[in-house]
Write a structure and sequence with these properties.
CATH architecture: Alpha-Beta Barrel
Distance between the termini: 33 Å
Helix content: 25-40%
CATH class: Alpha Beta
Order of helices and strands: EHEHEHEHHEHEHEEHEHHH
Number of strands: 9
CATH topology: TIM Barrel
Number of helices: 11
Mean pLDDT: 93
Shape: globular
Number of domains: 1
CATH superfamily: Aldolase class I
């Protein structure tokens, strides 16, 4: 494994780094203590609305109790939200209000910020004091390049990896093709099984009174996650080469974005042909 994956995130003992998500309730704070005792590398205060009084209080409390533990907090979509989390001790802020493929927050609540704008706003808010994590909205490797060029230090992906062998859930056949199920944390089934607190609905006991902010669906089976990541890293490297960047840090200092039209977007994708053989890094 060490030879096969030399770039895996490992600690000083050669063990894989482990992170764990917590909410903001008293039960979650007790869980944080147990996780730190077990040796977790990073705690993630993971909510749908990170710029809220409850999250800010929880962050201050966790930071005061565990000053040596790395803490990621989110999600936010504004400069003010990012600044508030950084000022209260977050080691990184997570950006993304509704960009995910399985998320319905923007249409259910009317709230959200397009991910590209949200990244740039968050970077402005933290002023390089802490890293910004772009959570959601990644469809192609080029989206990773654009997120980092906009100022993010790293990205999080969900549905893009949901069809891999290592992802949760069983694969199934439909009309001769293999698929895997994917669901958002805000989907009804996920909320029934414990994620309702992420959307501040932990006290809701009746399923019919839950207000979902996500869906369930299916994605094509994609094989090993290492193969998917290889293509994503390859696209990132190519993008860096096109703009003359030797490393990711340099990519964050060289943004020059161009506003394109719908016609320009159409031109960016394959057009005027019928695809006869799928590429491993492109899908419609």
């Amino acid at each position: 494994k060490r030879r096969q994956y030399p770039n895996a995130a490992k600690d000083e003992h050669g063990r894989l780094r482990v992170g764990a998500a917590i909410g903001t309730s008293a039960r979650d704070l007790d869980r944080a203590a147990e996780l730190v005792q077990a040796g977790v590398d990073v705690l993630v205060i993971d909510t749908a609305h990170g710029h809220s009084a409850g999250v800010l209080r929880a962050l201050e409390l966790v930071r005061s109790k565990f000053p040596e533990t790395q803490i990621i907090a989110g999600n936010i979509g504004t400069a003010e939200g990012a600044r508030a989390l950084a000022e209260r001790g977050a080691d990184a802020v997570k950006v993304g209000i509704g960009p995910g493929s399985i998320c319905t927050t923007r249409v259910v609540t009317g709230i959200g910020v397009p991910q590209f704008t949200a990244i740039m706003e968050a970077v402005k808010g933290v002023d390089d004091r802490v890293p910004v994590i772009a959570d959601g909205g990644i469809r192609y490797s080029g989206d990773i390049v654009k997120a980092i060029a906009a100022g993010a230090s790293t990205v999080m992906m969900g549905s893009l990896l949901a069809g891999t062998e290592e992802s949760p859930g069983e694969s199934f056949l439909l009309e001769g093709r293999r698929y895997k199920t994917v669901r958002g944390m805000g989907s009804l089934s996920a909320m029934e099984q414990g994620s309702a607190d992420r959307y501040f609905q932990a006290e809701t006991r009746e399923t019919r009174k839950l207000v979902p902010e996500g869906i369930e669906g299916r994605v094509p089976y994609k094989g090993a996650v290492s193969d998917v990541l290889y293509q994503l890293v390859g696209g990132l490297r190519s993008g860096m080469g096109y703009v003359g960047c030797a490393d990711i840090s340099e990519l964050r200092t060289k943004p020059r974005f161009i506003r394109i039209t719908t016609g320009g977007l159409r031109e960016s994708h394959p057009h005027d042909v019928a695809i006869t053989r799928e590429a491993p890094n492109y899908h419609l």
